[in-house]
Hints:
single chain, 4-stranded antiparallel sheet, 10 helices
Amino acid sequence: MRRLLRRYPRKLFLLGLVWASLLAFSLAPAASAAPKAVPLGPAPAPVHIDLNSLDAWVRPGFSIEWAYYVPDPKDKAWTRIPAKPGDRPLIYRDLPLEGGTRRGRFAVGPAPADTFCVIFAFEASPELLASSSGTGLLLGDIGKNWDVYLNGAVIQHEVRLGKGGIIETERAVHGALVDIDRRYLKEGTNVLAFSISGDRQDYRTGLFSRGPYLIAPYVDLLKAKSEYIDLMLIGIYFFFGLYHIILFGIRPANRQYLYYGLGTLFLAFYLFSRSFLVYSIILDTALIRSMELASLFIFFPLFIAFFDESNRSKVSLFTRLFSAYSLLVALVSPFIWGELILKLWQTTLPVFVVYLLVFDFI
């Protein structure tokens, strides 16, 4: 450590270590395909209803008649998915359902959306009905197009199908909050139905994360979606990146400022693409997915280039090749084989981490 501090500027080296720590912390949620669940504090059971704690009934297709009644257990057309509190994704491709279009992993281009139905039966207590803030439905993750029905009445419409049944606007939403009209909520047994459409091979077709999937007083769900601290950190990253780009403009010879500034900006874009707020700003979630993947693939090579430039005063050939590879997958992944390319990139990432540790830190 002393040899490194004598060889390289102390402030620059410490700056890199701080950024590496922030990078490692920020990358943690990206390890899983689905975004992390939203924590919600404890509450009385009659007021907060966890859909994961209820049996789910699923079948291919959708008909409005199904949204009025609890499925008959003897009806072979329905498949019962047992309750699993706190952790039960309902992804179309993983469900034991017949029919639907099964495209290959390397299929390119849009295809007509497949639809399946999910039904929950829940008991609404007088305490829930008497909530002064109203009642809401929080969906941790749902896509790619979907409608929600309560006792046969549509309470949220997010189906955007164009000509030939192809999705026109993707709506794979993280942290969707639905306001439940009290006119359709009754004391006792209620039927909550989902019509979900999308590519059967895409993991985002369905209720595709661990949760939460909750019915609760609206104000409680708003608190669960609070992300003020996260947004503050994203803002800090953004302006910190701009600051270092301005420093590079003042001192063009210090190219490490450019790599550091651009890398921090792309890190801010990546984190913002995983926030709740972005879904209120950008309607087509395919654009959000593109921003997330492109930012993820690009900011890590910039991180390595920063250390190369700081320690060697030049960017190595290895880093240049890695940057070209990452830029290529960033351009391609939003359009073809996005999930497969993401897994491939994650598989090869340890090679570049080892390079960073061996040739830049040691």
